[in-house]
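Good morning,

Both structures are done.
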Amino acid sequence: MSQFFRIHPDNPQIRLIHHSVDIIRAGGVVVYPTDSAYALGCHIGDKSALQRIRQIRRLSDDHNLSLVCRDLSDLGTYAKVNNSAYRLLKSATPGPYTFLLQATREVPRRLVHPKRKTIGLRVPDNNICRALLNELAEPMMSTTLILPGEEYPLIDPAEIRELLEHQVDLVIDGGFCGLEVTSVINLEEDAPVIIREGCGDLELFGAG
């Protein structure tokens, strides 16, 4: 049965953040709030936890999860970023966007798109998420919590716990955090390409 932590969205309790990160490091799958919707997350190096997330969402092996990062300091380790892309990233993060970039060799192969060698990177604007990542001191593997057959993410932590209490190790109740998925922006080339319209101001990337 999963644990259930109510964490304050503006002032996350340090004790609960520490406990949450212990669960992640021990191979746990957690439900946590972001700036767009609730998400499933696990340790970047944990193949078993990643497989559990795939089973919860019934994702195929070629569906790539994103790396959720605390800030841009992780970008150089996991992605190849040119100067124009970095300027865009700096202006748009933290925010509700997923950026597709060329992956470096530091990214576990199971997270990289098998043909294009890309990785999705996120820097969410959410205090709980930021506190988790600061304590973890490395990115998490993550995907939006949309159950099979559903169009929208789950938004009620109590319902999430009821539905997934035997499939995840922790549900973090951080209040309402949104219902819309992130916008996905491809930054592989010189000009950004909007792959999916979701949260956030897309005028930053030439839309509109």
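Second structure follows.
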Amino acid sequence: MWAFTMVHELPYDDPEKLRRRLRARYPISIDRVIGLGTLPNVRLQRSLARLPRVKLLNYFLTWVHWLWFLEPYCALLFILVRHPERFPKTARQLAAVFDAGCAVYFLAPTAPPWWSSEEGLTGEEVGRIMVEVGEDTWGSAWPAMYGALGGNPWAAMPSLHFATSLMAAIALSEAGRTAGAIGWSYALTLGFALVYLGEHYVTDLAAGAALVGVVRRAEPLAEPLVLRANQGLQRLERLANG
């Protein structure tokens, strides 16, 4: 997670240069079609704002979002302990999702809905509920926490939050029914939260799911190359150790 955080922030070292390549309008257009003229983010926020305990819902979904920093690795740890024979394949696939997603962040930086709303591009207000909850929860510590983890605002397409949780859910399903049910419950709740909180478009989630499908299909083709590379590194290690 540390490596992912560092890598996905690298393009933002020169914000002005990155902004010249920024894409913001195409996910708005696609999501407006999905939402029948209104962004799904806006539909959810307007609809759920009428709930009597919406603040409690906001806290719950924000914590679901924050727990993503642990969830994929908890899934990997479970598989390592309970099904070690499945661990190498699962780890390769999860790493491939992270790596491919970061490559897209470099090649095609895309703005999330909350940022586009602040810039007046959506035509509708999309609130960033996570920030409101963060300020209430952490008080004066929130700016430092947010600054440490939110260094690149234009890393939205595809949603790696959803893609990695989806990959973890699939791996857990292959390991067992109960583990799979927990994994899928988290992934689907997170997907809902990401749209409702204003963090991602539905289009971002669809792209994340598509990325998982590509990695799942491509990984068996790449496996022999990875194994040969590992064997070569192990030989070099033995030579280095005498």
